Amino acid sequence: MSATAELRRTVAELHRELTRYELVSWTAGNVSARVPDQDLMVIKPSGVSYDELGPHAMVVTDLHGKLVEGELAPSSDTAAHAYVYRHMPHVGGVVHTHSPYATAWAARGEPIPCVLTMIADEFGGDIPVGPFALIGDDSIGQGIVETLRASRSPAVLMRNHGPFTIGATARAAVKAAVLLEDVARTVHFARQLGSPDVIEQQHVDRLYERYQNVYGQ
């Protein structure tokens, strides 16, 4: 099986994780993956039901969003994903959702503070807010890159829009999207009860280092 064929299958399967964790509604949201050693990516087509997103429906574009394989039009967020891949070579996967709690923080234009060990583990500190940008060109991608270059976080809350997450693989980016929504919800609840305590930076650094380099198999 070719690299693009394998990634089309993987990316199709990962879209089911977005619905499983209730991160998307209707046809919104998308997952993409960089094709290793090629200036190509696999991404969801625009406006297609999640029930129809098998491997055959995935499309392949170059890193400027030009269609290379597939019969359907690429996602409306393709330019943003492509910009990230062009400017962040370590990124192998990008995810965009409108998950409710994370998007609520994006609507307020407020970073999610590092008040939970899970935030320190996965995001390395506060989850940052990116600038407002319109869909249609690579403006959103520029905002993602500018924000995440200055942060350890694999997630950014694009102002008045919603979250984007990145990862070394598409699966890692999906994981970040799932955990982002979880902590966004929990911190929202904590705010209703009072003022949650921010974790000291020295502890954030230790938690992040352990989780990134020691935790797991």
Automatic annotation (TrEMBL):
Residues 9-188 form the Class II aldolase/adducin N-terminal domain. It catalyses: L-ribulose 5-phosphate = D-xylulose 5-phosphate. GO terms for cellular component: cytosol. One of its GO terms (biological process) is pentose catabolic process. InterPro entries: Aldolase_class_II_sugar_metab (IPR050197), Aldolase_II/adducin_N (IPR001303), Aldolase_II/adducin_N_sf (IPR036409). Keywords: Metal-binding, Zinc. GO terms for molecular function: aldehyde-lyase activity; L-ribulose-phosphate 4-epimerase activity; metal ion binding. Pfam families: Aldolase_II. Its EC number is 5.1.3.4. SUPFAM superfamilies: AraD/HMP-PK domain-like. Its cofactor is Zn(2+). It comes from the Bacteria. PANTHER family: FUCULOSE PHOSPHATE ALDOLASE, L-RIBULOSE-5-PHOSPHATE 4-EPIMERASE SGBE. Belongs to the aldolase class II family. AraD/FucA subfamily. This is L-ribulose-5-phosphate 4-epimerase. The lineage of its organism: Bacteria, Bacillati, Actinomycetota, Actinomycetes, Pseudonocardiales.
